[in-house]
Amino acid sequence: MAMKFYNTLTRRKESFKPLKKKKVGIYSCGPTVYGFAHIGNYRAYVFEDVLCRLLRARGYQVHQIMNITDVDDKTIRGSMDEGKTLSEYTQPFREVFFGDLKTLHIEPAECYPLATQHIPQMIEIAEKLLRRGLAYESEGSIYFRISKFPEYGKLSRMDLEQVQSAERMDQDEYEKEEARDFCLWKAAREGEPFWESPFGRGRPGWHLECSAMSMHYLGAEFDIHTGGEDNIFPHHENEIAQSEGVMGKPFVRNWMHCKFLIVDGQKMSKSKGNCYTLRDLLQKGYTPLAIRYLLLSAHYRSVLNFTFSGLEQAQKTLERLYAFMKRLRDHRTRSEQDSSLEEIQAAQKAFEEALDDDLNVPQGLAVLFDLIRSLNQRLETGRLGQKDRKVALKFFEDANKVLGIFSKPDGALDQKINQMVREREGARKRKDFKTADRLRKRILELGIILEDTGGTVRWRRKLDGENL
Ligand SMILES: [Zn+2]
To answer: Which of 72, 83, 93, 232 is the most exposed place for a label (fewest CB within 10 A)?
Structure first.
């Protein structure tokens, strides 16, 4: 059965057929590096990671490009406030971003191009649009002329009146022909960084970079473009206008968008103080994989309500999963009773079908946990044969290649740490402070921090760059 993905453009699930037989080109809108990304951003990156992992598991060679926005109003303002160059200002945020991706077990994209390194490609698009009458110059800035692109609005299905008012909210001081027209190139302002161009000194508008870099790395037409649902309008609508305006043909086969993440039923916002970054959660002692699990456990096309109790639940679920995996790995039996094979194979099929059906992760997880329940009973009563055990183990490991929610070395290390923490607690109770201290030092050498919270000791991994 072919894989099916929901296409925002057609509002339908469609069978997936890549342009090239076994290769898939994916462009994912990446972060603006002016601060730490929040968990809502990471929901989208985790969704994209599962998508890429699934395609790889189905034998495709995936070529994923994720841009890094290192020039826009926010990065410029930040760098000017701190008296730094753009690059000096964005560098630490870029590093933290890549560190966070690793922490969340997100497999790296093939390439993370920087906007500031693709200015010539952006200028080229603006020039072509000018030549085609799809753009115009006004006071040194270049604007896209929406009235010349009748298909504008086809992705977001906004009617033009809505577009007018939405664009008016995006106020700026320049003179446009029409309020809804958007900026391709902004004329340089006093004190701001700029690049030379045939239209004078200036800098690109935000939307232009994604058209330029996606076409540069993936060609004029490619398979999948992803992002958060907030990217649909105006960002992706404008990307379509720019790219299709230049090439005169469809640009992306399948648009996939991940829904919002809300916190305790409320929209995330800095003023509410519920805009959590990954470090906020790690500092509270939650494990990276529990956070990843929570982010992928809801279907990507439904709103995810993030709560701390949900995160605790995720942590417990994973502990049960790890315990099961350990049991399955260590289980030794002479039983030849291989009577679970059918059940395991049915689960395998159901899991694959769930994932292939527009990435239905919650359904896939339900299949895994049903099988775990059943196999646990067999393990308890010694009714799981060696052959079945191996087939089951292989299935869970394959499923994990797509989900990335447990990892062998981590699990082993966690157990070692738990053991040492218990030994240290025992030593403290015996008032053997020398041993307790020695254990504390060894634990710290493993990059683990112990925290005394109301009589119970919890541990967490030291964060990158954290000084003690
Ligand atoms: Zn983008």
So the answer is: 83
218 CA → ligand 1 middle, Å: 14
- Residue at token pair 């994932």: 355
| Segment 304-327 mean pLDDT | 94
pLDDT tens digits for range 44-85? 999 999 999 999 999 999 999 999 999 999 999 999 999 999
251 Cα–ligand 1 center, Å = 14
Beta-strand (E) ranges in 88-231?
135-138, 141-144, 182-187, 202-204, 222-228
Say what the pTM is. Answer: 0.87
Give the model's pLDDT for residue 451. 74
Tens digits of residue pLDDT in 194-228 = 999 999 999 999 999 999 999 999 999 999 999 99
Centroid of ligand 1 to alpha carbon of 68 (angstroms): 9
Q: Average pLDDT in the 111-138 region?
A: 97
Q: Where on the phi/psi map is residue 76: left (φ > 0), alpha (ψ -120 to 50), or beta?
A: alpha
Burial 84-95 (b: 16+ CB within 10 A, else e): eebeebbeebbe
CA of 141 to the centre of ligand 1 (A): 21
Strand, coil or helix: what is 419? helix
Centre of ligand 1 from the C-alpha of residue 66, in Å: 9
